[in-house]
Amino acid sequence: MDAKDRQIIRALQQNGRMTNQELAAKVNLSPSPCLRRVKILEAGGAIKGYTAEVDPKAYGLPVTVFVRIRLERHNADDVQHFESRVQAMDEVLECVVMTGATDYQLRVVVSGLDAYEDFIRHRIHPIGCIASIDSSFVYGFVKKTGVFPRVD
């Protein structure tokens, strides 16, 4: 990936709905080479898709919670069991594997505190193999972006 490809990606991260003509002008290419580069980035998996950024509160999910989970054991069966169960939960927007005292961090959205309690009691607890659950509720965002920094 070269600097022009990165420029294209940053422009699309800022506005994934711009036309190829607009993108080409923004990155200083003619439309045909620009489109060719975008198609190569898509085919190679660098561009994984296009989505709409939606306000969770407007959608009806105003509560965001970061949930840190530590497993009791780290054998292959427990890890696979936990990860497959979490992948099936719509409330979990992200699940990352962590270093340190926490094994996983989940970003969860719910409609309220009752919904979060229900999520923990009826979705997370039944998984089993969990040693601890630690929750932090988000009450505001200072910065949220999907645009990568420049790489020189």
Automatic annotation (TrEMBL):
A molecular-function term among this protein's GO annotations: sequence-specific DNA binding
Gene3D superfamilies: 3.30.70.920, Winged helix-like DNA-binding domain superfamily/Winged helix DNA-binding domain
SUPFAM superfamilies: Dimeric alpha+beta barrel, Winged helix' DNA-binding domain
Swiss-Prot/TrEMBL keywords: DNA-binding, Transcription, Transcription regulation
Pfam assignment, any one: HTH_24
Domain (HTH asnC-type) ranges: 1-62
Biological process terms in GO annotation: regulation of DNA-templated transcription; response to amino acid
SMART domains in alphabetical order: HTH_ASNC (SM00344)
Classification via InterPro entries: ArsR-like_HTH, AsnC-type_HTH_dom, Dimeric_a/b-barrel, Tscrpt_reg_AsnC-like, Tscrpt_reg_AsnC/Lrp_C, Tscrpt_reg_HTH_AsnC-type_CS, WH-like_DNA-bd_sf, WH_DNA-bd_sf
Gene Ontology cellular component terms for the protein in this record: cytosol
Protein name: Transcriptional regulator
Species assigned in the record: Roseibium alexandrii (strain DSM 17067 / NCIMB 14079 / DFL-11)
